Amino acid sequence: MAALCLDFLGFQEALKKMRDVDDKIIYALNALPTESFKGQVNSESTCRDLYAKLQESHLARQESIRSCITISASNLKKLREKRETQPDNVDTDNQFRAEQRKLRVLQAELNVEDIIKERSYKTFNERCRSYFHAGQ
């Protein structure tokens, strides 16, 4: 994923694919049976599997975003040092500003990730609370 940090559009596309589990949680939860068909599907197993997928997906995305933040912050530090030694270099100044914007967007992605995570677990708990309790 570190290579994707350098290609920001590629990174955003990868994040979008990684968020697929969250985007499709409603469809996955619709597979749970209603009261009249409860005995035909193992709802506990379905909920347990979905919970594991959600956890794995959230952790992977958060690690990826944090990794890119670390790389971007390191690049920004190097550009700041280069900028101090070459204050009249327009290219360095432009690179510095671009890296600053990139870092801000990456930090905002962590906030977006928290919102997505909260929404997904809320939806999960509404449908699976009768069948599965996290931490069991």
UniProtKB/TrEMBL annotation:
Regions that span the bilayer: none
Coiled-coil spans in chain: none
InterPro entries associated with the record: MIX23
Provenance organism: Drosophila sechellia
Family: Belongs to the MIX23 family.
Name of the protein this chain belongs to: Protein MIX23
A Pfam family assignment: MIX23
Gene Ontology cellular component terms for the protein in this record: mitochondrial intermembrane space
